[in-house]
C-alpha cells in the first residue's frame, strides 16, 4: 500500500521510512510477522510501522508489545472493556492496561503472534487501534461527561466520532492521513470548564455563541515537545458544529502537504504557523475547504474552573447519577477491568467513560442503585472520595515500559503521595503531574506541581531526579506552568514538596 500523499523532500529518517513503505501496509503482514517472531522480523516494521496499527515495540520489555486503542471522547462499553480485560488476562503478570492522558487505553504484554486474533476481537466489539501512534492523529478528546452534564453546552460524542471516522476511514485505516509530518492532537470541548485541556492540542474547538447560535472558536498549534512547549493560539475563526469535520480535514490536508518535514523537532503544526503567520495559515485553510470562514466570536464560554468529575453527581436525566472513580495513576489489571465492566452493567447502562486525569466515570446509575453501588469492593481501591493529593495525581508511563524515560514515575508518584499524606493534612486538591522525560506525556505544564524526569547529581553520582514546574492553570484562563527548579534528586524530593504544600497549598503538618 502506498500513501496518497504528495511527498515533500524526505529529510529525516522517519520521512525516509514512510516514503519507502506506508505504515498501514503492515496490516496485511501480520501472519508473516507471527511466523517470523519479533526477533526475526524487519526491524523498521517492528519498531516503527506497527505503530500505524497502534502496536508499539517496547525495547524495555522486548517481545511484549504495547497496544494503544482509540476511544473517541473516552467512551467505552462494558463489553469492550471486558474484551480488553480478557486480552491482557492471558498474559498473566505481564498483562495490564493504562488509562492515558488522552482519555484512552493502552494494553501491555501483547505478543506478536496474537495480533490477528486480537484485531478480530476488536472488530467484533467495534474497537480500533488504527493510526494511534507515530505521524498520525491521536485519540480525539471530548468532554468526559458529554450527554450527562446538565450544564453542558454541547454533547461532543457524535462530533468526536465523526472526526475520528473521517480521519481513520471508520477505523479501517486511511492512507490520506497516514503520512503527516508529525503527530497531531485534536480536542472538542462541550462544557464550561475546558475539561480536556484544549490549549495543548494542535486543533481545539471551544464553545462560543454568536448571538443565540452555538458554535466553537478554534485554536491551533498547541503542543509539548522536548525542546518547545506552546499553548494553542486563536485561528480567529468561529464554526458551527456541522463545519467541524470539514475544518479538521482542511487543516490536516494543509499540514500534510505543507508542513515542515526536516528536523524532526520542528515539524509540529505550530512550526508551519510560525513560518507562514496565522493570517496566511487561515487563508490556506480557507482555500483548501473552499469557503471563507467566519471570524471568531468575541468571547468563549469557558467560564469555570476545571472539574475532575470524581465523586457522585446528578445527571441531566432525572433519577440518574454519574460516579467518578479515582484509578491511581491510571493503572488497571485484568481483574479490575473485568470488575469495572461488571459494575457498569449491574448498576449503570454498560457504559464507562475515561478522563484525561486517567480516571474512570460510571454513568447512568439510578438513585435506587447508588447505595448498593457504593458498597462494591473495587471502590476500596478506585475511590469515589480520594484524598486531596491522590485525587489530583497523574503520571506518564515512565521507565517501567518507556525507553525514553529518565526516571521511574507511576510507582514513585503513588508512594510519594502516600508518604506526604501520612505527614500532612491537605484539604484542597493539588494536581501533581509526573512525566518521565521532557516529551511531557504526563503534562507537567498543566499541573499545580509538575515533575519532569531528568538526571541529577548527588554525592558525586548521577541519580534519578526531576525538574519542578509550578503555576499550570487549567479551566478558565488556562496557562502553562514553568520550570522553577532544576535537577532535584528524587531521594530529596519529599521535603521539597512538603514545604511547597505547606507554604503554597495550605497543608498542615500532622501532630
Ligand atoms: Fe506521549 C511519545 C506515552 C500523551 C508527547 N508517548 C510517547 C511514546 C509513544 C514513546 C515511546 O515510544 O515509548 C510513549 C509510550 C510509552 C508507553 O509505553 O506507554 C508515550 N503519551 C504517552 C501516554 C501513554 C502517557 C500516559 O501515561 O498517559 C499518553 C498516550 C495518549 C494517547 O492515548 O494517545 C501520551 N504524549 C502525550 C501527551 C499529552 C497529550 O496529548 O495531551 C503529549 C504532549 C502533548 C503533545 O503531544 O503535544 C505527548 N509523546 C509525546 C512526545 C513529544 C511530541 C513532540 O512533538 O516532540 C513523544 C515523542 C515523539 O513523539 O517523538 C511521545
Ligand atoms: Fe515515555 Fe517520556 Fe512520554 Fe513518559 S514523558 S511516557 S517517559 S516519552
TrEMBL record:
Instruction: Please give the start and end residues of each transmembrane region.
Output: none
Q: What are the alphabetically sorted keywords of the record?
A: 4Fe-4S, Heme, Iron, Iron-sulfur, Metal-binding, Oxidoreductase
Q: Which residues form the Nitrite/Sulfite reductase ferredoxin-like domain?
A: 63-123, 313-376
Question: Can you tell which superkingdom this protein's organism belongs to?
Answer: Bacteria
Q: Which class of enzymes does this protein belong to? A: oxidoreductase
GO molecular function annotation = 4 iron, 4 sulfur cluster binding; ferredoxin-nitrite reductase activity; heme binding; metal ion binding
Catalytic activity, EC: 1.7.7.1
The residue ranges of the Nitrite/sulphite reductase 4Fe-4S domain are 134-290, 391-501
Q: Which PANTHER family match?
A: FERREDOXIN--NITRITE REDUCTASE, CHLOROPLASTIC (PTHR32439:SF0)
* Family recorded in the similarity comment: Belongs to the nitrite and sulfite reductase 4Fe-4S domain family.
Q: What is this protein called?
A: Ferredoxin--nitrite reductase
Q: What is the lineage of its organism?
A: Bacteria, Bacillati, Cyanobacteriota, Cyanophyceae, Oscillatoriophycideae
